[in-house]
Amino acid sequence: MSRHDLLIDESRLFERLCETGWLRAAFKRVKKNKGSPGIDGVTVTEFESRLDEELRQLKAELESWTYQPCPVRRVEIPKPGGKGIRLLGVPTVRDRVVEAALKRSKKRSKKRSKGQVFTYSK
Known about the structure:
Blueprint: H1 3-17, H2 20-33, H3 44-49, H4 51-63, E1 73-78, E2 85-90, H5 93-113
Antiparallel strand pairs: 1-2
Helix pairs in contact: 1-5, 2-5
């Protein structure tokens, strides 16, 4: 596989990430995992109630390279036996949708390239 082929494949991955259907499938995964709201306070149910609008906005931001993830909401969870606390960061639902879409894209790409050797030369 040539360097040019790799660039084309990366371009296809980005195009796929920006597809509304791809984002919708990512949301279904986020919904299935449930989870707490992030720093913006938006629950999965609230996000779903305006899903088309949210996905259009995400698509536009991704395509224009203006997407910015939000800070995570900090949560402290006590460790078993009262031996301190564990810190968690809870991302917003919209950020989890983008993460799920990226993860899905990466898995698909990995499956396609399995068994191929990639080399880079300058």
